[in-house]
Amino acid sequence: MNDLKNISIRLFLAQRGIQPKYERNGYGMYLSPLREERTPSFKVDYVRNLWYDFGSGEGGTLRTLVMRLERCDSREAVRRLQNGEKGDAGIASLSPGIGEPPVVGGASSVMCPAAVPALRILSDAPLRHPALVGYLTSRGIVPSVAAAFCREVRYEVNGRAFFAVGFRNDAGGWELRSARFKGGSSPKHIITIDNRSDTVVAFEEFMDFLAYLSLKHPERLRIDAAVLNSVVNLPKAVPFLSRHLVIHAFFDNDEAVRKTIADLIRLCPDSEVIDQRHFYSGYKDVNDYLIARIKGHAEKLPATKSAFPTKALRNTLQPSKAKPAAIKP
Question: What dotted CATH number matches 2-83?
Fold first, then answer.
């Protein structure tokens, strides 16, 4: 396992026909091999041997990259990497992209896709497929909420057709989810809902937005809403968020959110930013809380400590000590 850490992500990508669009001191910028894009936003740190996709907010080691490229679990990714270690350059011999034939020749059969598989949207329609409806139900989403905001999207990857729950962003791209897939189509962008309110609720992912609405059901959304679809999209949301007097942030309960909240406060100096994570402390996000609440043991899980100050000041975070009976605002 430790030997796998020595396999260069840079060489691994090169062996698959993926080259950087430009390089700087110690890193290279690529067109993401995980989705279709025109501007390189996939960074490979040559020194630390790590990758990060600014478009999706994902990153990690070579093993996690193989998991995403090959859509396999950790054990299978390690197996495929170990099977490819005999190559002269120390590059893993993996399966080709969907529908791509292997390249024959050489001491080891290293697969080199001619092009990165691109996701293409085929159509969208009202949400009806039982598998997708069942998936949303398993996530605790109220059917009427899903029907109001989601579509059934058919898409294609290298000639193979799939379907997923789709939520269209402001630039015309789609965020796609199913029991087996989490991704989206280009362009990657934010989602905004403008009800001409001076208050806005902000989320990292659209599933958390749907969970919020399901927790509020049957109350209708009367204030504004914004979904980042990745914290790296925060700058895109600032023009919309900064119009509001109050911003309620329903972000994930993780360490990365500290910087996101700090950036939100800095970029929206005239708005009151309220961190609402206290409402679902002990849970990964709003949707995780909703699922646990439905299962009847939401109050039994241990709460995590807040990483933010509790003093109530304008433009600072204001978590409450007591968990409210109903989600607010």
Answer: 3.90.580.10
